Amino acid sequence: MAEPHSPTARTRVVREPERGVYDRAAAYQILDEGFICHVGFVMDNQPFVIPTGYGRSGDNLYIHGSAASRMLRNLDQGIAACVTVTLLDGLVLARSIFNHSMNYRSVVVLGTAVAVEDSAEKLQALRALSEHIVPGRWDQARQPNERELRATLVMRLPITEFSAKVRLGPPIDSEEDYSFPIWAGVVPLQMVTGLPINDPKLDPKTPVPSYVRDYSRTAAR
Questions:
Q1: Dmax over Cα atoms in the chain, in whole Å?
Q2: Which is deepest, 145, 155, 180, 204, by most CB within 10 Å?
Q3: C-alpha span between 163 and 175 (Å, rounded)
Q4: Which residues pair with 51 in a beta bridge?
């Protein structure tokens, strides 16, 4: 784990600063629980925000895709990027519409990504991406061959400039609204898994692996 982090002027939370979190362990827990990040960048004076999968290994985020991807090809040219991950934990219903909110955990990472050229690191990054989604799958599935590796571009974004923002707890109403006769509270939300569905072409004798049967994404909080 890296040294304790201090926010920069760009990553310090300004709106509701009490929700700002600058602890690496807390930020990494959010990153490790999420599935999708949104990558923001500007190309030809046009902003783009692209959702994509990701993985983390140590103090680096990895994203990947086709070598023909417009997003990755532009990031490979040194364009600054903003990567965000958000987890939604609940709907916060206040007595007034104005004070309705959501409980959430989010992370913003700013920086410049670089292409992974080293073959060993590229394979390790793809392993991190796979294990981020379904731990245990990489060692059982067929791994990328040389043709697939050549067709895949992997970008590394150091987690150097970042911050997290978290809202937890009940609604916060104006004092005069606490006597208003309507229910107020939190509707908790979480991602749940259903029963695994076999591929129709799967040999029916093939057992469901434990990492699929017992899959869970909700982290202890």
A1: 67
A2: 155
A3: 32
A4: 38
* Those residues with Cβ within 8 angstroms of residue 181's Cβ, 6 or more apart along the chain or in another chain: none
From CA 10, how far away is CA 105, in angstroms rounded?
Answer: 19
pLDDT, mean of each 10-residue run, the chain (221 residues): 71 88 93 96 92 95 89 87 97 97 97 93 95 94 93 94 96 95 96 93 95 78 43
Domains and CATH numbers, the chain: 17-213 (2.30.110.10)
Q: What ranges make up the beta strands (E) of the chain?
A: 20-21, 36-43, 46-53, 55-57, 60-66, 80-93, 101-112, 114-115, 152-158, 161-167, 185-188
Strand, coil or helix: 131: helix
